[in-house]
Amino acid sequence: MKSMEDDLVTRGAPMSVLTLHAQHIMEPYEDARFALPPKFRYWSIPHTHDFYEIFLVAAGTVTHIVNNVKQALPAGTMVFVRPHDVHSFEKNGNGDMCYMNVNFRASTVLHAFDYLGSGFKPERLSEPALPPVLSVSPEEIEHTLGLYKRTVSLLAGSTSADTTPVRAFLMEMLLRYFYPQTQRTDMAGPGWLFELLEEMDGEISLAEGLAKMQRRSPVSPEHLCRTMKKHLGKSPTEWINERRLRAAAFRLRAGTDDIAAICYDVGFNSLSYFYTLFCKQYGMSPSVYRRSGQRNEQPKWL
Q1: Closest CA to 136 of 78, 61, 81
Q2: To the nearest 10°, the Cα dihedral for 197, 180, 120, 68?
Q3: pLDDT tens for residues 262-284?
Q4: Residue 105 is part of which domain span?
Q5: Mean per-residue pLDDT, 166-179
Q6: CATH number of residue 35's parent domain
């Protein structure tokens, strides 16, 4: 398998967008190229390619600029990039961002669409102006990265002509995340929504909570609620509480601050309510979570 240093790219698309070709990043016998960089450093240049790409943010956050739309992608975001999409990435903040990236030959994906039949409705993935963007749980991040690792291991121990591991991985991704009956909430919402969520996704903003979100929103509270439920599958309050719990979980792992202090710092006004939501989200109390060294936010083998 060729390294990124060996990748050949061509210029010539409008606005000097780089064009990547499958034949230059994959060997002739390969159906896909797997990449799991330990960290995303800074940014990538705008590019397009003649292959499909599945991108999963495993930890941290990143800004995705795709087809002239900017999206804030938190941990647990999966993107299905099509051959005609023009996109790039920018790192958010000073924290590390870890991700999984798999590139599939267009012919491999199209064969999978044909095999799955008309009920799969591949036009849902290919026709929208923006690529499908899904939100997956910490458990699903672990599952997907584990499947990735097993697939890479199978490829390393197989003959060059064995395409079964790659095709099995692709079918798992398509059926688990993109099949109509199981598809997660589409996050490809309006640009203002992602700008608002990016602004809110910090401990100070989360502590101010719904009042600040509604104040900073360019639309009415009712419109904001409808838009978030449509594109994220959750209300503003549910989204804020989910992010508050993540911030609390990070502080529980990273330090020895008093649990009550963490509760109030991230924006909860009731310690009992914080305990109830935390137990529901993580399956254990904050004190047990701290003692266990649970790593729901950071996959174990990254």
Answers
A1: 78
A2: -10
A3: 999 989 999 999 999 999 888 88
A4: 4-178
A5: 91
A6: 2.60.120.280
